[in-house]
Amino acid sequence: MSPNLQPGIKDTSISVRDTAAFVDRYMPKDVAEGYITRELKAFTWRINQWSALEPGEARSPEFTCAGFKWRVYPSRACFDYCPNTPNYLIRRIYLVNRAADGRYPSRVSLYLECMGPAGGASSTQEWSVPAQGLFAISNAVDPTIHHSNAIHHRFNPDEHDWGFNQFLDTELLASTATRPRPFVENDQVDITAFVHVVQDPTGVLWRTFFGDYDSKKTTGHVGIKNLGSTGYMNVLLQALYFTNAFPKIIFQIPTEGRRWPERNTPLALQRLLYSLMTSEEAVSTLELTKSFGWKPIDCLIAHDVLEFYRVFIDNLDTKIKGTPAGDSLRNMISGKMKSFLRPINMPDQESSRIETFTDLQLNVKNLKDLNASLRDYTSTETIEDYPFQDLGNQNVLKGITFESFPPFLLLSLKRFEYDIATDSMVKLHDRFEYPARIDLAEFLSETVAAQSKSEPWVYRLHAVISHDGGIHGGQYLAYVQPDRQRWLKFDDDRVTPVIEREVFEGNFGGYPSGPNSGKSAYVLVYIRESAREFWEAPMELDVPAHIRNPPPTESKVVKPEDERQKNSKFMTVKLVTEQSFTFHQGFDLAQFDGPKDEESRSPSAPTSFRILKTETLETFKSRVSDHFDELPEDSFMFWSVILRQNQTIRAHAPLHGSIPGRTPDDLIIQTMDAIRSSTSPETHVLRLYLDRIPPGLQGSPFPPPGCILVFLKYFDASQQSLIGLSKIYAPRTEKIGVVLAPVLQKALGWPLDEAFRVYEEIKPTMIERINNLKRTFEQSELIDGDILCIQSEISSQETSDLKARGLATDPVEFYERMRLAPTQGQTLPGANLPSSTGPKAPVVPSPKHTSQLGVVVLGEKEK
């Protein structure tokens, strides 16, 4: 029931009964800008006996607004999430307005409840209504004495009430310490609700995304999964995909007969594009990244979207040459510009050079809009006494003009620059406007402009790639117009409709505060209106047959009894690695219950081995060594991973310590099934953790005596991400804060004195903060396999901004949202981060973390 909070407002001279003035002053305007009002209704509930409200019956009379029934209620409320309820519905238990002994509780809670359409729809009928609610508690005699606060929410049968469980401290109801009269006087008080219902053409305004949202059903399109920090890749692929021309070019590349997409970039890209056309859910770029020669850890390294675009296009261009696609990709993205020097006194003389470009980087600072930036780009400067050819020193004009623009015009806005005063890179949050249509004829050379009057150089905005964040990190979002009729927002695996105002005004930048303060357009894509091939459909007709109907995997028919007999001889070992822990955004160490097929398998899933039950540990260790590129066998060891009594999965003990009476030498000849029976008798699957031994400790006693194995996760509130950060061996008798500070300095690049919080992941329903970091690990009752979650201290302003955006402010709330999601590891509300730069950029960045450092490398893995 966490609302999108706005800062609480105290008393003023404005009367609650002056609806227009009160709403204008206290109802936030930015959250509903661009939406048309259906109805604004003020309803006041006069409570004449505040102290006599009965438990569970404190409900206001009903009132209607915009064709829906509403009511207000105060209470002291608690809530209990019930995972066995369909769709993870919330069961609320409303408690009494005051304690049993007659005393008031510590706070007053206020909620706005929508009871559905006024026409009497059934409780199971689908309905939803987006509304702002402004609450006010005021003195019944003097309505200028009041306290107010606001929410916004999409009400529906599953989430039919929304409000504050801490609207006002109860002790303030009768207080006159800061006001001439109390709120409750003579046992009377007014509770007023101002309900503002808006028209929502998108159908998703202010809704919560707890896992039941279907992008395909809502928009007809699907998103792309984030493999760690691949948001920069996802937004670019969506912008290219919806040109229609780009998929057609890629489908012309011959790939028939190539069986391994992870070794062939064109084949992997064709399969990805076809999946975007046909899939019912978000698709994966795993094959594509493998074709670049990337390992999973490379997907955690964030890059600038423009940097990736250039390398990606160059990589594709080399593979297209000599194919039926020919120069079509270059023709699609390449334009020509002319750099010139021209004597002022002899304008007919000119020294020039024609260059090809695939993108333009435009200035933002001190420029109002795109036209001004293009004029700045093509402006001339005077150079005095320049030795010009054989004409001697001349005063010359130096400038740039364009000979042609490509059909697909990508413009990068220079939002990041070096600040000499601070000796650091900064992000420019300046307001910078751009139009839906632009005529580029004025930026062409006079000769070209005169020759091409019959074909206008008018371009239509096709996509906006936005960066939400600062120099140290942020989130990439793509706004794309797929059919020239509507705009869609692509937030990794989630696709939602948006109104035009969000595409334009919402990304112009220049907001000093609020949820859009760090958000601004970073890349603009314009398409020439006369380039019909970019709009014509359907592109499905161009899909090669071997992509549309891939050959079935060869399989041998096996009789059921033979299969059962064969299976009885085998077992499965699931091996948790540093990679799976690093990628994991969820409970426990890894995603143990994900898809089994390799293509769909999450990077956070353990590595699975199917082996004979009679295989020895010695043989299995060699198998693991070979699987991980001949990892030396003396450089790693195994820990047993068990299901604890509280139903969490944790590393338990070094394998030789998990089986009583077994020494390491004795254990090495034990069968894997015997080890499973000793460590995990309750399951047919043996779970292990692959522990890499640091080079300096190989050959020494390991784990170090007196230490416990502790796993660290990192919660980044600004990115709404949670990742596995590291594992450490912590001395039991050392203080938690003393041990963690240098670890976090190395892993996250923090100063040694950086303030941080520590939470223990006890179980999904119990995430507890460790308040005293001066206590030792032993005093805090931490043992082998425990998981700690780290969060940097955030300011009260950052907390308010996060609440205003409906985002989690700490791991407790973030874990709770994950618990409500149908599947672990699912992207949560607000959890999507881009590139170009990144906040407190960690060495191993968070799954949606970004950094402007790093070089994109697309390797040659083709065979």
UniProtKB/TrEMBL annotation:
InterPro entries cross-referenced by the UniProt entry: MATH/TRAF_dom (IPR002083), Papain-like_cys_pep_sf (IPR038765), Peptidase_C19 (IPR050164), Peptidase_C19_UCH (IPR001394), TRAF-like (IPR008974), USP (IPR028889), USP7_ICP0-binding_dom (IPR024729)
Annotated ranges, domain MATH: 40-195
Name of this protein: Ubiquitin carboxyl-terminal hydrolase 5
Gene Ontology BP terms: protein deubiquitination; regulation of protein stability
GO MF entries: cysteine-type deubiquitinase activity
GO cellular-component term (any): cytosol
Record domain USP: where: 222-529
Domain of life: Eukaryota
This protein's UniProt keywords: Hydrolase, Ubl conjugation pathway
Region (Disordered): 824-852
Keyword match Hydrolase: yes
Organism for this UniProt entry: Coprinopsis cinerea (strain Okayama-7 / 130 / ATCC MYA-4618 / FGSC 9003) (Inky cap fungus)
Composition bias type Polar residues, residue spans: 824-838
PANTHER family: UBIQUITIN CARBOXYL-TERMINAL HYDROLASE, UBIQUITIN CARBOXYL-TERMINAL HYDROLASE 7
